[in-house]
UniProtKB/TrEMBL annotation, chains A, B, C, D:
SUPFAM superfamilies: Tetrahydrobiopterin biosynthesis enzymes-like. Catalyzes the oxidation of uric acid to 5-hydroxyisourate, which is further processed to form (S)-allantoin. It is an enzyme of class 1 (oxidoreductase). Belongs to the uricase family. This is Uricase. It catalyses: urate + O2 + H2O = 5-hydroxyisourate + H2O2. Its EC number is 1.7.3.3. It holds the Pfam family Uricase. Coiled coil: none annotated. Keywords: Oxidoreductase, Purine metabolism. The keyword Magnesium does not apply.
Amino acid sequence: MGIVLGPNRYGKAENRVVRIVRDTERHEIRDLNVSTSLRGDFAAAHTDGDQSQVLPTDTQKNTAFAWAKKHGISSPEDYALALGGRLLAATPVADGVTVKVEECAWDRIEVDGAGHDHAFVRRGGEVRTTTVDLTRDGAQVVSGLQDLVVLKSTGSEFKGFLRDEYTTLPDADDRILATAMRAEWRYVPGADAGSGRDWNATYDAVRALLLATFATTYSRALQETLYAMGRAVLEAHDEIAEISFAAPNKHHFLVDLAPFGLDNPGEVFIAADRPYGLIEATVTRGEER
Amino acid sequence: MGIVLGPNRYGKAENRVVRIVRDTERHEIRDLNVSTSLRGDFAAAHTDGDQSQVLPTDTQKNTAFAWAKKHGISSPEDYALALGGRLLAATPVADGVTVKVEECAWDRIEVDGAGHDHAFVRRGGEVRTTTVDLTRDGAQVVSGLQDLVVLKSTGSEFKGFLRDEYTTLPDADDRILATAMRAEWRYVPGADAGSGRDWNATYDAVRALLLATFATTYSRALQETLYAMGRAVLEAHDEIAEISFAAPNKHHFLVDLAPFGLDNPGEVFIAADRPYGLIEATVTRGEER
Amino acid sequence: MGIVLGPNRYGKAENRVVRIVRDTERHEIRDLNVSTSLRGDFAAAHTDGDQSQVLPTDTQKNTAFAWAKKHGISSPEDYALALGGRLLAATPVADGVTVKVEECAWDRIEVDGAGHDHAFVRRGGEVRTTTVDLTRDGAQVVSGLQDLVVLKSTGSEFKGFLRDEYTTLPDADDRILATAMRAEWRYVPGADAGSGRDWNATYDAVRALLLATFATTYSRALQETLYAMGRAVLEAHDEIAEISFAAPNKHHFLVDLAPFGLDNPGEVFIAADRPYGLIEATVTRGEER
Amino acid sequence: MGIVLGPNRYGKAENRVVRIVRDTERHEIRDLNVSTSLRGDFAAAHTDGDQSQVLPTDTQKNTAFAWAKKHGISSPEDYALALGGRLLAATPVADGVTVKVEECAWDRIEVDGAGHDHAFVRRGGEVRTTTVDLTRDGAQVVSGLQDLVVLKSTGSEFKGFLRDEYTTLPDADDRILATAMRAEWRYVPGADAGSGRDWNATYDAVRALLLATFATTYSRALQETLYAMGRAVLEAHDEIAEISFAAPNKHHFLVDLAPFGLDNPGEVFIAADRPYGLIEATVTRGEER
């Protein structure tokens, strides 16, 4: 056997595209972080330094900004599909392209009870994401959010777990449950690569459903909570094929105040940084066992 | 001349205190990052390794958590004043103590149109801060916020500036103005160390005023905008003696789309990371010149 | 079709394990960041909140620290193999376990020309990594490094690339090439799960070879440089089956000093943060085409 | 009393200046992060939006890069003094200017036992710093380092400290002492603003002395260690007037392995993130009491 090139791809990461829509005096803003990556038969660039089939990452960057103007940004998904299509068209040897977008939300600044026309304050909180993967045969869209930080101050337990000789954790009947969630849902492929979909409406609906399910589900483990959240999303959204979670269990430890003559019935906690539990799960459609 | 100990202080930084108020089924949450620091005659610890007058940083930590229970956290300012008073009382050789608090806000998760009793989502956006400095003679309270990210998509210019042979910047008649602001306002000392003040109401009012002034002031430079914001706060709040700003000018550069046959009348920008302008200014009370 | 649980796993991430070996007066230190994750039939925890087969992440943490004592840390790989074996043994329904380790290196502080017995300074620079994946059938070891920041001030070009109407980049005959490299090499499975291997010696040899190849290879693109580095490693190390790279092209842009009457023949650069090129490639063994 | 402008300054922060010296085939590299800030009578910019006396931050950036060529970078101090002088000269109403520089060190990549001519690997570890403050009357130079991470695995105790009812910490006879140090030393003003000084040699000497003193001083508290380090520097360097430290006590907690039937005589520790002790001290010249 010899030594050969395996899987490879290349692109421009973290293009900070800010698009102002100023067709009227009431401006709109979209604030994106865009990464593109092409894959295909780029072997000659690796083995012979031959760039003749390599669309430069600088050109990918230019295209990302030009498409913010030419195509506009009605949603991250719609923009990513268009941008990916262009990059694939411009690169004959490419088999596929991945476009990742992170979006920060902005709110209008409130002045005298109304949102201002052209002044905004960044919302903070979670980042909306999409990863669009295009080949010559079609598109796959996976949308989601990251760093959605949620906490329940009661309604969570963890007990009856497997024990071995290294287990010191006591059963917990009532604890804080907190996580900084990443969720990604994969859309059922559309005949039209999803061009008719209202991606923004689905995003808002899924986000609201995730939050409400987190709030209202009694939790016997973070695993159970994630599964309930995933179920709720799949039940409500036929257009979603699958949803995946990565959820650090951000531990809040009850502080022992007894040495100071104080009781602490679930009132004072220390929030820990590391280590943290990390729970990952996918909820999908299939035959129940 | 010999070699001597100069200014010194010590404490525990970044205690992550989370306090749940669960007196009723409708819980409240306060999420703080607390740092304490004592100063005074701690020379013997430095020169002779004598710890007999040194209240351990571990004890300062314990006290920060105990006070979250004993005194509670109606506001960062009120809690910091109480905690600082305790630490000063417990450390005879201390002349002064500084307590810094950063607070993250949480919102109730909305379920069926109403906020949930015990499930929360972290708001994101700016962090509320306070720095309380106590001596045996009194207290100084400086409150503020950091990382308030604001942007105007028009209503900002920068022109007529000083030029030298290294100046290449053209005049700008219409640009994006954006910053991640830090503001800190110093309260007029109160007879009672401010114990009767409604710190939360003032915070909300100042924050709203800063935002509204940013939105509605035409900007001929970030300096002018900051000064206007400071003036507005001092005019509205007699209890505030002074306000200081540190405001990175987060540059958004208009992308040149002309090579691609596209015009770009203030629509597509690249958000830059570094370098950034950094404007710092204090607005205070005094005799006008 | 119904809604079912898909792939899932859970564990404790970022256990900061510091191990001092003090059998003699000349101490040794290993400074690790350890993450473990179990997978298998944990469906009941998700669907019914039944934890009876779930070894708590807290127990995984305890085991990580206990194994630093019981088994010791002669290398990240050796420790990870032992820890993974224990976790798999302790969890009957687990099919597999992944143990990831990041290691920071420390040097002895030099005193009078010799390394001190028990005082250390952290080396900085790259982090050594290993990811060990164990199933009931065997082990896979992937070792590497991340954040190895390297730069060539000449000996790099980029030209003759594919152009379209969004291409503005000129050919570059002589540029800075810089990257913060992540490399991961997969070991050929050993009959004994690698227990006889000298993981530390291989790490040092591969690191040196990556650096020397980077330095001495004329670069017609970062892709070519990565491929050369991978080839060199596979040629020299039969025990390595495959090596993968993720390499951000950290752009250094030549500053235009002509407006100031200064030439700039490759002397003054601005280092950019974002966007950056991102090149990913695997070099493997196989039939050459 | 009216409302007036208080202290203010402005500039360009974090210019990432990379300078290659390529006068011979053996290149040199300096990798700086440069921030400049002007102060003086800039009131009109704040109150009237009048920029006529304001040298743009963009011009400050241009000058930082031009000076890397015109003046060169023999040391951060020398470059900062020259750059500051230029900015002050170019801005009539400025009273003073501050130039801050952070420098990352690079090593030559070793090939066949020798350092390569034009290939480098970033050293990591501590960052060298300087803050030069210039007025029309003279210069003050404060140099230092930050993030020098050091650890002693024995030779450190903490006991006999002040106790109150919130003290639970036991005496420690033998503990890990670790910190990520920031040190800054102020130079005695020179008749020539220090232009004849060998800043690089002093930096290397102070760094070595700090490390050696940390290593060889038995520590009864971090305070005592810092004071010893400061004394050693002032005793050896007449050109240094004062040295200040900020040193987080990076706690390493001994893990209780007794529940698992294992003893742990100072061998296995968990490195904690937050909270941390924070010790700040200045050692200066003056009359001993």
